[in-house]
Design a protein that fits this description.
By secondary structure, the chain is an alpha/beta fold. Helices cover 28% and strands 18% of the residues.
């Protein structure tokens, strides 16, 4: 897609507030302590005020627009984090996962950067987060590593437990050292609850003389391990730059748990999905391949970047005076800022870029000649 230059118009720096963010989600606060158990009550609005002044049309040559600077569309970095635990062998789920991922790789553009991490790792250190700090296939453009991804995926087989937190923590460490620009995305695919590795959960040993005690241990282990993964995802999602976590899994891993991960990872399928436990992609055992193929196809569309970086010092720009203009074959329009992410734009965490959401993004993706221009200096338009 060829996008036109984006224009930046700055207002007076002396009165401009700094770009700081905070929205009540786990992706927007200060770092959690290692043993923290997050709360998942959500607020979709950040701390920057969005006055409700109705829809106002602002022309590009309005008197408040004085200075311009170019911006660019960000590339996509995608890390597939795949559960290859022994239970994936059941009901043909592993074969279905391989087939679904091959389909995804075939449909992605060669310029998209993709990597692959599988858990548990085949090495004896599969229970250590450092083992997963280097993916099985590091992220590179698909035009370079497509054949290697397919080969590694085809040569793997299911075995072992579900050290999910090790893989999530290791992936976050990998992205902390990652030097390429662009959005950072994880696709987590799993069919079970996380086991105790890389968490404070106790190991559980079967005891025929104390079956209730063993079952109580398993339930406690699952609860502690699941909370550890939640915290790991929260830390990655509010990092700088942030990581988005797309989640696909079976009910064996708990719909509540998986939906929490997707919501915390900023990839909820709808703004109100958390209450309905449907933020993630639900994979049924009997229709695993078809469900996964549909999920990956939707994720493919959502991962394509509608994020635009602005080469400007955010401390010199008033975030309440930002507007986005989109020009397609059907004409030009001012896109409102929509902090609910239904149809409009919003700031990304860190405030260095803006992201189009919903139909606003779809219009740009569907038109090869679309032009996007970001205008700074005029009061922000919000839905009227």
């Amino acid at each position: 897609m060829t996008l036109g230059a984006l224009a930046l118009v700055a207002c007076s720096p002396e009165a401009a507030p700094s770009f700081t963010t905070g929205n009540g989600r786990l992706d927007a606060s200060t770092a959690l302590p290692a043993d923290a158990v997050p709360s998942f009550e959500a607020s979709t609005r950040d701390a920057i005020p969005v006055p409700d002044r109705g829809t106002v049309v602002i022309s590009e040559d309005a008197s408040c627009s004085t200075t311009t600077a170019d911006a660019r569309r960000l590339p996509v970095n995608l890390l597939i984090v795949l559960d290859r635990s022994g239970s994936m062998q059941q009901s043909g789920k592993w074969v279905a996962a391989q087939a679904g991922l091959r389909t995804l790789l075939g449909r992605l553009d060669g310029s998209i950067r993709v990597g692959l991490t599988m858990f548990p790792a085949p090495s004896g250190a599969s229970g250590s987060a450092s083992t997963y700090a280097t993916p099985n296939v590091p992220i590179e453009a698909l035009s370079v590593n497509r054949a290697r991804l397919e080969s590694v995926l085809a040569g793997a087989s299911p075995n072992g437990g579900t050290p999910m937190n090790c893989a999530v923590e290791g992936s976050r460490s990998y992205f902390e050292r990652f030097t390429m620009d662009g959005s950072r995305n994880v696709i987590l695919i799993t069919d079970g609850a996380p086991t105790e590795e890389c968490t404070s959960a106790p190991p559980c040993f079967p005891n025929p003389l104390d079956i209730p005690g063993f079952l109580a241990c398993v339930m406690a282990q699952e609860r502690v391990a699941s909370d550890a993964v939640r915290v790991s995802v929260a830390r990655g999602a509010r990092g700088t730059p942030p990581i988005r976590y797309f989640v696909a899994g079976t009910p064996d891993a708990s719909d509540t748990f998986l939906s929490d991960l997707a919501f915390t990872g900023n990839t909820g399928r709808t703004p109100d999905c958390q209450g309905s436990m449907s933020c993630h992609y639900r994979l049924q055992t009997g229709t695993f391949e078809a469900d996964l193929t549909r999920a990956l196809d939707e994720i493919r569309g959502r991962a394509v970047s509608c994020e635009f970086a602005v080469d400007a010092d955010p401390s010199r720009v008033d975030p309440a005076r930002v507007n986005v203009n989109v020009t397609t074959r059907s004409g030009a329009s001012i896109v409102p800022r929509d902090v609910d992410h239904n149809n409009g734009w919003d700031y990304s965490p860190g405030m260095r870029s803006v992201v189009l959401h919903g139909p606003a993004c779809e219009r740009v993706l569907a038109d090869d000649g679309a032009q996007v221009r970001i205008v700074f200096g005029c009061p922000t338009i919000t839905p009227g």
